[in-house]
Amino acid sequence: MRWAQLTLVENDPGSYDPRFWLDYFRRTHSDAACLSAGGVVAYYPTQIPFHHRSAWMGDSDPFKELLTGCRKMGMNVIARTDPHATHQETFDAHPDWIAVDAEGRKRRHWASPELWVTCALGPYNFEFMTAVHREIMSRYGVDGIFSNRWAGSGMCYCEHCQKNFFEAAGMALPRAADPQDLARRKYIVWRQQRLFQVWDLWDSEIRKLNPSARFIANAGGGALSDLDMKEIGRRASILFADRQARRGLAVPWANGKNAKEYRSTLGRKPVGGIFSVGVEEPYRWKDSVQSEAEIRVWVADGIAQGMRPWFTKFSGVLYDKRWLKTVEQIYERHYRAEPYLRNEAPLARVGLVYSQQTAWFYGGPRAQQKVEDHTLGMYQALVEARIPFEMVHDRLLEPDQIRQFKLLILPNIAALSNGQCDQFRDFVKGGGSLLATFETSLYDEWGAQRRNFGLSDLFGVGYAGKTEGPMQNSYLSIQKDPDSGTFHPVLRELEDTPRIINGVWRLKVEATEKFRSSPLMLIPSYPDLPMEMVYPRVKNSVTPELYLRDLGASRIVYFPWDIDRTFWEVLSVDHAKLLRNAVDWSTNEERPVRVTGPGVIDVAVWRQKSSLTVHLVNLTNPMMMKGPFRELIPVGEQKVRLKLPQGRRARKVQLLSAGRIPAVSELNGYMNITVPSILDHEIIAVDLN
Ligand SMILES: [Zn+2]
Fold first, then answer.
1. CB 637: neighbour CB atoms within 10 A?
2. Residues 381, 580: contact at Cβ < 8 Å?
3. Model confidence over 462-503: pLDDT tens digits?
4. What pTM was computed for the model?
5. What is the dihedral of CA 88, 90, 95, 97, to 10 degrees?
6. Phi/psi at 239 (nearest 5 deg)?
7. What's the gap in Å between 142 CA and the centre of ligand 1?
8. What does the alpha-carbon distance between residue 233 and residue 511 come to, in Å, rounded to a whole number?
9. Ligand 1 centre distance from Cα of residue 567 (Å)
10. How many angstroms separate the alpha carbon of residue 113 from the centre of ligand 1?
């Protein structure tokens, strides 16, 4: 449930104090540890040629010393290896193990130039690291081996990669980045096959020596990650998201997003969140320490969304010790709340689909803008609307994998196979709803454009062959239903304006079904300069920009424009309202939990064996959109309305962080709970009868 990682630096042996660390593991109630064993530096008396022993360890066995201490406390221990770099003597004996750049030069390490970068797809991993992993397992019988940076450091043009790729694909390694380049497309697939081969090899060698142990890859992520999460989820018994802190313009909910992406393919298998206590900016101040508030909110969001915390610290000798107390307090709180953190299932009814194939084959080098920014906008809108939701992998759409959801959201999921489109059709036939934007399903699974949307029949519109943008100064007019004279529910809180801003890119589409009317009509771009010219050229809007279908239980929403991506770029309040309303209308049922009150709160709702929990993470902070937090600022009273499982009643309700019993009332299967204030993270624990 609680993980500790100490990554030794080469000169730690003899100068750091292992007793201090073992005592810290005990004080934090850590029940598992990841300890440095081998790879670029061995911290045990290895017998394998070219496995470089720490020059400071002498006759000692630093790995064994820590391992023994952890075992005495009943901890699980996994050994850490890092294969991505090696020393000069390896280069001299096995020059073919070294990675090669596009110009044919062997690659020196970018940060430690006395070292060489290794090729991940050739004999260094397949032979040398296999021997290292076998040796660690046979000597120490650890519970697993965790490899950091095992998947290479960018494209490699070494003799093995050239030969193996040619044998597999019948062509030379790609030189172009465009995923429509055939060699690039084949390389994206082949590289993954090689990495899964080495994963399977290491895992099987480890299991031969300890059947309950596993190879644990440092791998995984969302749409922008380069190894198929479906394959990872099938293989891994446990996995850790290595997102150590936020940087640049990252938001604090990004850690919860990691948790949801990992869980989307691992299901109920344990997922951990690796957090560092330091600054994670590109300048890599590895020995730095973050503010207490920043560490607390980052870890809290991961825990709320289902991750087990894992702190990682480099260097056994500490320079700045301010983090120790913070992490101890987070772990203490986690330890006390543990019975309510053993989750069985999330109760969210909304699924946000992500698609690695869309990023690989449609996004290519521009996947951040064309793919991920759509997801981030939709994610931000859902957080602001306080709607609990899960992430859904687009290759896991079998009925039993998506049955828990009432609504699936497709934020520009452009590249979908016919089979995947059929799965969405089946979902809708079974009463599910869809909300899709922009170019969703306009490309096949290899990123080749179709003549029409694969989901055209569900949207009720067809692609008219034209994309417009970037648009300047375009708007959407707000329309009453002409028959009833009222505003559609998707326009809630927009009734007091005749128009709102448009997005930046739109598709020309034509209705193929009969629509009563559209709540939003296009006001086309008109000049934004000189000011004398800034007036609309079109009087009556004739082009619908929102298509709503009510098919009984299921409802379908299609935005033919980039509302999600535009929202991420400009964060318009009107777009936030529109997205919130569209999600509520298409879900077409009460939310499992509704939280009302001021501020920005990330909401999660979970079921355990005989309890429910609602996690409320308070993101309300002037440093929310760009960290780090300076201080935690409590947010005021929140009213929580929680749906109870059919036929169950609440036996006891607690606010675990505040340590108090809240005011509650129960009516018609719902609990109403008042939370007076939230500092960083409140957990409402409801024991069921
Ligand atoms: Zn290579």
1. 12
2. yes
3. 999 999 999 999 999 999 998 899 999 999 999 999 999 999
4. 0.98
5. -120
6. -155, 155
7. 30
8. 39
9. 41
10. 19
